[in-house]
Amino acid sequence: MMIDGHAHFGSLPHNGKMFGSFEEYKRICDEIGVSKYCMQPIGVSDNFSKKTTPDNNAVVFAHAKDTKIIPIYWFNVFDLPETIDGCYKAIKLHSDIGQVEIDDKKVIDFVNKINLPVFVHTNENKEYSNLDKVIKLAENVEVPVVALHSGSVTKTFFKLDGYKFPDNIYFETSGIQYAFILKKIYQMVGADRIIFGSDYPFGDPRVSLAMIETLDATKKEYANIVGKNIEKILKL
Ligand SMILES: [Zn+2]
After folding, report:
1. Residues 61-111: pLDDT tens digits?
2. How far is the CA of 20 from the centre of ligand 1 (A)?
3. pTM higher than the cut 0.70
4. Gap from CA of 8 to ligand 1 centroid (Å)
5. Phi and psi of 40, rounded to 5°?
């Protein structure tokens, strides 16, 4: 079974046009055999400029109608809830809202309080969201920590050798600039720590699967990357 580990629910509005839709996403997933989707809301520009929280409820409502959707809660350190709904299987941080460091005490405390796996947006070019910060978060929590986009940019490839990743860090495949970054991660940590994700509508599940193909992994490894690993982490 293929599970998309990272997708956004809905469309991205830009200059009066909408990019992507859940209907389009579902059609693509049906065509290629993706049967479940870990989804969080879409962060629109206002969320970033005004430090507000994307519409988590939209995902909960959609999940009530379509159980293929696995809800992921987008938490914002400027607007932390006391509790979150029991339907969420993980939480997600995007450090570009307020340029919050991934290992900020508010983040560590919230992750430990909610006690669910945490997904973090990463970009090796940004001091507050590079893989070093992911390591520091992972060292301070018990739950799995999924590095969305695996550092994303070319620089990641050259910095990877300097990192020692704790066992609770996983690497997600969307938004990776070049295949050699994912190939190096595969060499360093192996297939059991790699998670297929599309980042739809920014990315597309077909692009991520093509990226995973470049690993020339065994059948068993491929099955773990595209579904079994996330199934285990989220206890689905
Ligand atoms: Zn995303």
Report:
1. 999 999 999 999 999 999 999 999 999 999 999 999 999 999 999 999 999
2. 13
3. yes
4. 6
5. -120, 170
φ and ψ of 101, to 5 deg: -70, 140
Span from the CA of 17 to the centroid of ligand 1 (angstroms)? 19
How many Å lie between the centroid of ligand 1 and the Cα of residue 213? 21
Q: Where are the domains of the chain?
A: 2-233
Distance 83 CA to ligand 1 centre (A): 23
pLDDT tens digits along 176-198: 999 999 999 999 999 999 999 99
For domain 2-233, give the fold. Answer: TIM Barrel (3.20.20)
CA of 59 to the centre of ligand 1 (A): 14
Distance from Cα 218 to the centre of ligand 1, integer Å: 27
- How many whole angstroms separate alpha carbon 151 and alpha carbon 222? 21
Report CA Rg, the chain: 16
- For residue 6, how far is its CA from the centre of ligand 1 (angstroms)? 6
pLDDT at residue 8 in the model: 98
Distance (Å, rounded) from C-alpha 142 to C-alpha 189? 19
Distance, in Å, from the CA atom of 234 to the CA atom of 98, rounded to the nearest integer, reads 28
